[in-house]
Design brief:
eight-stranded parallel β-barrel, 8 helices, TIM Barrel, about 240 residues, alpha/beta
């Protein structure tokens, strides 16, 4: 199972920053996930490492994609895979070219909620590993009383439908992996995706019990904001003292 740091290690240092990447490395991750967002919503302008526009607007020192990839191409990250998550459509080929220029494509997985973005990348370079993120969420509706019951009911329906749908898309060559929210994960989904030749990564898991359950299930990767959880959250390779409040 790959140990994947979400935004680097968002609970140890501000996400999508060099500090978060360093904290993730110290915590022993196998893969770093980071977000790529364009300066403008139409996909134009500078590309930044940011999760959303509120995040981008709050950071005067936001890291550009070029700066981030230059950093991640360094020797300290040579053994770590990358999950490059594109938040919007319209700049796919720029991301692809930036990864290619720095020799990072071979250890990168490009993910997105946008199926069309994955089609663009696949057409440009059939060898790139692609991951479809599901579902598209701005926030977790199960954490709000007025939406919790409906959201849980929809999740139950999705768990029945998704295995067949996702396996079909993998066989068609749309993607190589599924990046699935933990509430939609099921043994049936894992079996279906694996049988189709794909991988399953589960996001975003921030408790030890769920990490252990998914590890026992045999998923390909677990994505967390706190990589110390992979060692029980008890101060493994990364000192608990560096956790952010």
């Amino acid at each position: 199972m790959r140990r994947v740091g979400h935004k680097g290690a968002d609970l140890l240092a501000p996400g999508n920053t060099f500090a978060a990447f360093q904290a993730a490395i110290e915590a022993g991750v196998d893969m770093l996930e980071f977000d790529v967002l364009p300066e403008r919503r139409d996909g134009t302008g500078e590309l930044y490492l940011a999760h959303d526009y509120a995040d981008l607007g709050a950071r005067a020192d936001a890291v550009t994609l070029d700066e981030g990839l230059e950093h991640l191409a360094g020797q300290a990250y040579a053994d770590v895979e990358l999950d490059v998550d594109m938040k919007l459509p319209g700049y796919e080929l720029r991301v692809l070219q930036a990864l290619r220029e720095r020799g990072l494509l071979g250890r990168s997985l490009i993910s997105s909620f946008e199926r069309e973005s994955l089609r663009v990348v696949r057409a440009a370079d059939p060898t790139v590993r692609l991951g479809l993120s599901i579902p598209r969420l701005r926030s977790d509706p199960t954490t709000q009383a007025r939406t919790k019951l409906a959201a849980l009911a929809l999740a139950a329906v999705a768990r029945r439908i998704l295995p067949t749908v996702l396996a079909r898309r993998i066989r068609r060559g749309e993607m190589d992996a599924v990046m699935v929210h933990w509430r939609l994960m099921s043994p049936r989904l894992l079996r279906a995706v694996r049988a189709a030749g794909g991988e399953v990564y589960v996001w975003t898991v921030d408790d030890v019990a769920t990490v252990r359950r998914l590890e026992a299930l045999g998923v390909d990767g677990v994505i967390t904001n706190d990589p110390t959880l992979f060692w029980g959250g008890d101060g493994g390779p990364a000192a608990a003292a560096i956790r952010r409040p």
